[in-house]
Amino acid sequence: MNTPQKPDIRPENPCFSSGPCAKIPGWSLDQLSGAFVGRSHRHAIGKAKLKDVITRTRAVLGIPDTHLIGIVPGSDTGAMEMALWSMLGARGVDMLAWESFGATWATDVTKQLKLDDVRVLDAPYGDLPDLSQVDSARDVVFTWNGTTSGVRVPNADWIATERQGLTFCDATSAVFAMDLVWDKLDITTWSWQKLMGGEGGHGMIVLSPRAVERLESYTPPWPLPKVFRLTKDGKVMRDVFEGITINTPSMLCVEDALNCLQWIEAAGGLKGMLARVEANAAATFAWAEAAPWIEFLARDPASRSTTSICLIVADPWLQTQDDDFKAGIGKRIADLLDKEGAAYDIKHYVSAPPGLRIWNGMTVETSDLEALFPWLDWAWATIKAEGDGA
Asked: Quick count: other Cβ atoms within 10 Å of Cβ 114?
C-alpha cells in the first residue's frame, strides 16, 4: 500500500491537551509583566488582585451574590477534597461515577472517609448512570462533564429544586463552556488550567447558602488538615472568599488568571465562550461523524461532551490486530502527530478505552481543529499502510 501524503497545513497552535489546556489566543509571557511577585500576597495590592479574580469570575459566570467564591489550594482536586472532607457525613450520599474523576471521588468517600451510608451509582466509560435514581434527600457528588470519558450530564433537570441534600459538582471541564444552573449547585469546583487555559495549582470553590449552613451546623468526626478548613469557631472564614487565601498562592498564576478573565470579557463574556465551544464541537462532531474509522466513546449524543471529546477507533481492520497493538492504538496515533508537530497530548486518558481525546474548549481556535482533522485521517491511513505492508 502506498504511503499516504501528508496534509499541507498544520494547526497554528497544536495544543489540544485536556489539561493543562491551550493558553488563550495570542498569549505571551509579556502579559504577566504586571504580576505582583516578590511581595506578600497579603499586601493590599496582592489582596486586590486575588479579589479581582473572584469579582470577575462572578460577573462572567453570573454567579449569584448569595454564593461565596474562594480561591483554594490544590487545583480542582484540592477544592473537591476540601468540600468532601468538610461537608459529607451529615446525611447519606449518592456518588455518581462514569469516568476516572467521579470514580476517584467515590473511592475517597468509601475507602478514605469510610462513610456508612454511601450509594455508588456508576456506569462504564461512554455511558451515564441512571440519574433518576438520585435521591434528593441525600447528598450527591458528580462531575458535570466527564473529562476522561467525553460524557456529560445533559442538563440539571434531574436535580430537585426542593431538595434536602447538597449537590457537590466537579465542574472543571464544564464551567465557562456549559450552562451551569447555579441555584441547583451547592458546592461547585474547578481549576484555572482547564477552560481558562490558566496555570495549575489553584482551585476555585463556590458555596451556596445551603452549603454555608452545612459548614456552620455540622462538624465532621475526622480531623481536617489546615488546607481543608473553611470554618473557625463554627463560622465560615469569610476572608477566604474575599481574597485571603488559606496558603500562599502563586501571584504569577493569579496574574495569568486575571489575563484569562480579561480575554473572556473582551471576547464576549460567557455567551462568547459558549459560542466558541459550540463552534469547536460542531466542527469536531462533523468530522468524526464523516470519518469511517472513528466513533465517539460517548454513545448518546444528548450526553456527549463539547469540550473533552473522546474517540475510539472503529475500523474493522484494527480488530484483526493483536491485543497489544489494539491497546496501544491511541498512543501510536498521538505519537505520530506529536512527531509531526500537528497535535500534542491527544492520547486517551490512562484508564479510559484506547483512543483519542481532543480538547475543544474556548481557548482552542476552530481553524486549528479544522487543520487537525486531515492530519488525524493521515495518521490512521499511515498506520494501516504500515500494518498492511508489514
From this structure: 11
Q: Examine the pLDDT at 169 and tell me if it is beyond 60.
A: yes
- Alpha-carbon span 358 to 298, nearest angstrom: 13
Q: Judge whether residue 389 has pLDDT over 80.
A: no
Same fold, 29-265 and 269-384: no
CATH of domain 29-265: 3.40.640.10
Question: What are the strands of the beta sheet with 356-359, ordered from one edge?
Answer: 294-296, 308-313, 356-359
Homologous superfamily in CATH for domain 269-384? Aspartate Aminotransferase, domain 1 (3.90.1150.10)
Helix axes 269-290, 251-266, angle to 10 degrees: 80
Contact in structure between 69 and 205 (CB atoms under 8 Å): yes
Q: How far is residue 53's CA from residue 36's CA, in Å, rounded to a whole number?
A: 14
Domain parsing of the chain, residue ranges: 29-265, 269-384
The pLDDT of 313-332, averaged and rounded, is: 97
Residue 333's identity, in one-letter code, is I
pLDDT at 65 over 80: yes
Gap between the terminal Cα atoms of the chain:
10
Query: Average pLDDT over the chain, rounded to whole?
Result: 96
Q: What is the pLDDT of residue 388?
A: 73
Q: What is the largest CA-CA distance in the chain?
A: 73
- For the four alpha carbons of 43, 48, 50 and 54, in that order, the dihedral sign comes to positive
What proportion of the chain, given as a percentage, has pLDDT over 90? 97
